[in-house]
Specification:
Structural class: mainly alpha
Number of strands: 0
Strand content: under 5%
Order of helices and strands: HHHHHHHHHH
Mean pLDDT: 93
Number of helices: 10
Helix content: over 70%
Radius of gyration: 20 Å
């Protein structure tokens, strides 16, 4: 483990609290998050209530994941050490993400959209890197594995929507989607869905629905079609080739006198 469990507990919890506090500032200040959203629209502006709808269950999984980090004791047994290790391994990437999104909020509410976008880019690529290069295959016999997959992949999934939204309004405000953007959107989400499991693939489909509702018109209709295609690709791919495994590890308990 790169971090000790005790350090990971405080780093993970502090980063989430900071991000949550920043979001409250964003919602309660004037102008608030939605005011800035409504003043800055582009071809990747989602329906904002879809982000709120995503945030609530995501926060519940975050709390459950951190609670498990605090409840388990890596010194107690080899089994708990392995369970803790899966959580602690993600904490540095998790903390970077929440710090970035917390800082993003202050620039967003100041309408400094290009600066705000820098923090969104850092977060999104951090989460995508961890998910694609560091995260082991989900073991459905391990609660820590399940929760880490849900927390990391939902963070990466909403990060995809964030980077599309923020980049479009920072550099292409009030513009309609060019033909090339439409083609790249369909191809990009299609390819992303093809290499995704149920969790991340579901997030990609959700992102497209949020964009479709936010855009409306012919572009919104096309995005809705992409959402259906994304969901279908994810479903077929994962039904044919299930992405998870179920492995119950056998551990030898550590005698009390050896602890």
């Amino acid at each position: 483990m790169a971090l000790s469990q005790s350090t990971a507990r405080w780093v993970g919890s502090a980063s989430l609290i900071f991000d949550f506090a920043a979001q409250q500032y964003g919602m309660l200040s004037k102008p608030n998050m939605k005011d800035i959203h409504d003043q800055n629209l582009s071809f990747f502006s989602p329906q904002p209530w879809f982000i709120v709808g995503f945030f609530a269950p995501q926060m519940c999984f975050n709390v459950a994941w951190l609670y498990r980090l605090w409840r388990l004791d890596s010194r107690k047994s080899e089994k708990e050490r392995k369970e803790v290790e899966q959580i602690v391994d993600y904490v540095p990437y998790y903390a970077v993400g929440h710090i970035c999104i917390g800082v993003w909020m202050f620039f967003w509410n100041s309408s400094k959209l290009k600066t705000a976008n820098i923090f969104v880019v850092i977060n999104t690529f951090t989460q995508l890197f961890y998910m694609s290069a560091k995260l082991p295959r989900m073991n459905t016999a391990s609660t820590s594995s399940i929760l880490t997959h849900i927390v990391s992949k939902t963070f990466a999934g909403i990060g995809v929507l964030d980077i599309l939204h923020n980049t479009s309004i920072a550099y292409f405000k009030d513009l309609e989607a060019p033909f090339l953007v439409k083609i790249l959107t369909g191809v990009g989400f299609g390819m992303g869905s093809f290499v995704s499991d149920w969790i991340f693939g579901g997030c990609l489909a959700y992102d497209l629905v949020a964009l479709a509702v936010g855009q409306g018109g012919s572009w919104g209709t096309l995005l809705g079609f992409f959402a259906g295609g994304s969901a279908a690709i994810t479903a077929v791919k994962n039904l044919i080739n299930p992405p998870y495994h179920h492995k119950v590890e056998e551990y030898e308990e550590i005698p009390d006198e050896a602890v």
